[in-house]
Amino acid sequence: MTKAVVTLVSDDLLHRKNVAIEVLRLDLIHPVISGNKWFKLKYHIREALQQNKKGILTFGGAWSNHLVATALACAQANLASMGIIRGERPATLSHTLQEVQDYAMQLQFISRPAYANDAAIIPVLQEKYPDYYLVPQGGQSHLGVLGAAEIGRLAQMESYSHICCATGTGTMLAGLVHAALPHQQVIGICSLKIPDNENNSLNSFVKPYASAPKQYKIFYDFHFGGYARKTDELIRFMNSIYQQHELPTDFVYTGKLFFGVMQLVQRDYFQPGSRLLLVHSGGLQGNRSLPAGTLTYL
Ligand SMILES: *Cc1c(COP(=O)(O)O)cnc(C)c1O
Hints:
CATH class of the largest domain: Alpha Beta
Radius of gyration: 19 Å
Strand content: 15-25%
Structural class: alpha/beta
Bound molecules: pyridoxal-5'-phosphate
Strand order of the largest sheet: 1-2-10-7-8-9
Shape: globular
Largest sheet: 6 strands, mixed
Distance between the termini: 23 Å
CATH topology of the largest domain: Rossmann fold
């Protein structure tokens, strides 16, 4: 794994507001296992090996970054891998599912009625595949958080006032919160459409890792319609930041992160003199689900 690059974003708005943004390019650390997924998997893989498991069983959708990372990380660790996909097997597999099969991941499609919820399906799978170590959806677990906490080792973290990341399950956010210094605030831009309240499952998962309530803040108003939804405005924004800064983003997570943070700058959320680190958590492979020509940089 190569060292991640930190790139500076220079921009008129940032200049005017006296806010500095640097980007931790986890999208560049590995050609396949890019982004945050490797970090979230690290201790799960170690645990599976220690428990002498044959492989790892996990969950994902047709364009899942998590499945791609799991499939290749398992292949490299000499572990088998099995991906559980909700829904019937489609006539043609997505690029992502074809790719994970190339890395020897076995796919199991479970019909939606049978897969009513994780709580119902997990014990069934555990009984059926006792020699597989089960990694929850998105790597969301304490081990996933501990792995994500190591993301900060790739940058000079002390120098930033804010660390900003895209948020799905909140595992990466919790890890960054866990690793944050008292003077820092971690900002999560939620890519799912969920109600903004203290007691939602995302906040309940992240909260125990914070040493003070203000150590982190989740923003819920940059989801663009919900998980994996997008609008023309988001796509235009992604094309423009690529053109301006040569920063490729994905439409599920990092595009919304950059958009949200720039809006917060505009709204004066950050005091003048703030220094932000944005974690580019990868996920570019998911852009393959977009029609050709949508993004200028695909
Ligand atoms: C999975 C993923 C996230 C979300 O991470 P969580 O730990 O689930 O919150 C963010 N960005 C990218 C690119 C991802 O693939």
